[in-house]
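PROTEIN DESIGN WORKSHEET
SECTION A - STRUCTURE
LENGTH: 325
TOKENS:
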């Protein structure tokens, strides 16, 4: 997972993973959301990809576009040109619908390529394939390989999907790349698909995981991304976490937003917290001494910049401009 490093530095702490960018703070899965999350101090950007009708890979979560755009339609039935005419921020509201501060501001659905190009090359990414389609895996791999060619470090991307076929196929493509470039490990990592997660959790609940996976080793994923509970079954338990760690697998819990819950999950010794509120997560980890305290968390407001102010230099303010695409 991320080669046990983050931008070249060894990591031994819980990572803040911004769900769809910073979706409770900015319009989700937009370049603005991603850059805001990085300004806040996020470690990893979590995002989603789908294919348009004409075969372009775009950054979008839902099958239907209505929730974020206010218009009917499905991503797979729209061409890229049609989709990029639509206001991606039309329905975003930071105050439960009272205001729509980013409506008609020119914020569009980004291509996956635009996302890669807009971010620092070493930005760790967690990219979820939303469709059960090997062709989408192929499209994503093409963008990942292009990013590697442009300087992105290997092992800086986790690919996830609830479906098994997309991650299986992208591992095949990654293995071909590794062989071609004489790498000793895959250049990406993947999370367990839903079927593999369910099997693992059931085995872990009955103390059978260590026995089963000793017989049938896990070699098709590196991380479990799971909720803290499924119905009455708690999944944030030492039994589950220890079983995953026993086989060298990382654990990411989703979606954790309140400061109290973030603090509790961070105390469990897991590797990642997927959150809609990276500002809350960074504050909590600062209080726990896990994240540095040298930066004041900016309050994202409607506008084209956020402000980071150093505590150690009270009179110094650094402005980071966030471009709208």
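SECTION B - SEQUENCE
RESIDUE ASSIGNMENT:
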């Amino acid at each position: 997972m991320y080669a046990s490093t983050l931008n070249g530095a060894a990591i031994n702490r819980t990572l803040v993973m911004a769900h769809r960018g910073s979706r409770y703070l900015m319009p989700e899965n937009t370049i603005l959301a991603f850059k805001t999350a990085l300004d806040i101090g996020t470690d990893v950007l979590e995002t989603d990809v789908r294919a348009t009708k004409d075969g372009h890979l775009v950054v979008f979560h839902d099958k239907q576009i209505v929730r974020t755009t206010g218009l009917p339609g499905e991503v797979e039935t729209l061409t890229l040109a049609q989709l990029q005419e639509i206001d991606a921020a039309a329905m975003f509201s930071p105050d439960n619908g009272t205001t729509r501060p980013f409506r008609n501001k020119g914020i569009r659905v980004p291509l996956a390529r635009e996302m890669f190009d807009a971010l620092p090359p070493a930005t760790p990414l967690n990219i979820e394939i939303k469709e059960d389609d090997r062709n989408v895996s192929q499209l994503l791999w093409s963008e990942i390989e292009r990013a590697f060619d442009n300087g992105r470090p290997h092992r800086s991307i986790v690919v996830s999907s609830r479906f098994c076929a997309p991650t299986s196929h992208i591992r095949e493509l990654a293995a071909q790349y590794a062989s071609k470039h004489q790498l000793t490990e895959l250049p990406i990592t993947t999370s367990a698909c839903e079927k593999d997660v369910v099997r693992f959790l059931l085995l872990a609940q009955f103390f059978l995981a260590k026995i089963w996976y000793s017989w049938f080793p896990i070699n098709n994923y590196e991380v479990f991304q799971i909720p803290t509970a499924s119905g009455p079954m708690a999944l944030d338990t030492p039994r589950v976490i220890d079983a995953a760690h026993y086989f060298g697998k990382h654990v990411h819990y989703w979606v954790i937003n309140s400061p109290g819950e973030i603090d509790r999950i961070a105390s469990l010794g897991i590797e990642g917290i997927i959150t809609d509120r990276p500002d809350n997560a960074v504050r909590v980890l600062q209080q726990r001494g896990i994240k540095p305290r040298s930066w004041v968390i900016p309050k994202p407001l409607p506008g084209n910049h956020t402000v980071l102010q150093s505590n150690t230099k009270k009179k110094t303010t650094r402005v980071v401009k966030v471009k709208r695409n």
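SECTION C - NOTES
The radius of gyration is 20 Å.
Residues 2-321 form a domain with the TIM Barrel fold (CATH 3.20.20.190).
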